[in-house]
Amino acid sequence: NAGVMQNPRHLVRRRGQEARLRCSPMKGHSHVYWYRQLPEEGLKFMVYLQKENIIDESGMPKERFSAEFPKEGPSILRIQQVVRGDSAAYFCASSPGLAVQETQYFGPGTRLLVL
Amino acid sequence: GIQVEQSPPDLILQEGANSTLRCNFSDSVNNLQWFHQNPWGQLINLFYIPSGTKQNGRLSATTVATERYSLLYISSSQTTDSGVYFCAVEGSGTYKYIFGTGTRLKVLA
Questions:
Q1: Which one of A24, A37, A81, B25 has the largest count of C-beta atoms within 10 Å of its C-beta?
Q2: Does residue A106 contact residue A93 with C-beta atoms inside 8 Å?
Q3: Closest Cβ opposite residue A101 in set B31, B94, B100
Q4: Does residue B53 contact residue B12 with C-beta atoms inside 8 Å?
Q5: Smallest CA–CA separation between B83 and chain A, in Å?
Q6: Helix, strand, coil abundance in chain A, percent, nearest 5
Q7: Which residues does chain B have within 8 Å of residue A96's beta carbon, measured at their own beta carbons?
Q8: pLDDT (tens digit, 0 to 9) for every residue of chain B, 109 residues total?
């Protein structure tokens, strides 16, 4: 059973470009979470999604950031018009969504560098 | 929201030494996980431990939910244990993990 997959693993963008980060949850998992880790800091929650629904986006910046988890395919975190402050590691996690107490399984992360 | 504090912030050990890392949290939690982030940035799940004690090889963890803390024990440390150890908690009624600021461990050969 493959773990959580994220791609690309590294992404370089120039200021003003768009970044699209993909996350494929573990097989059978219907809950996806995105976290951001700024340099030398801990991870911070961004958004929690279930298939075709955003459940909690309280950690998402109000502008330029969006997330989706379509019925088919991976979850996408999209950052429009990137700025240098968006440089960070973005981690995706998934859980089965069957119980209140569940382990979240983390992917390897996408490291975004904005030049 | 829940506050998560980890101590110590930094730790340097000689190979073979034992250590205890602490995680304090300010409110009741549904879930608690310990992670190791290795020097390459990979996040490795160590324990899912909302309460009780678990052991896995040289590592063990104990969570005392009623007193709002968790401990991670590393015995006979090895250089490959180096990295940052994070505690993450999920508050009651939420689905998001709140991460502590981590303990940065360096094990010297």
A1: B25
A2: yes
A3: B31
A4: no
A5: 12
A6: 5, 50, 50
A7: none
A8: 889 999 999 999 999 999 999 999 999 988 999 999 998 888 999 999 999 999 999 999 999 999 999 999 999 999 999 999 999 999 877 788 999 999 999 999 9
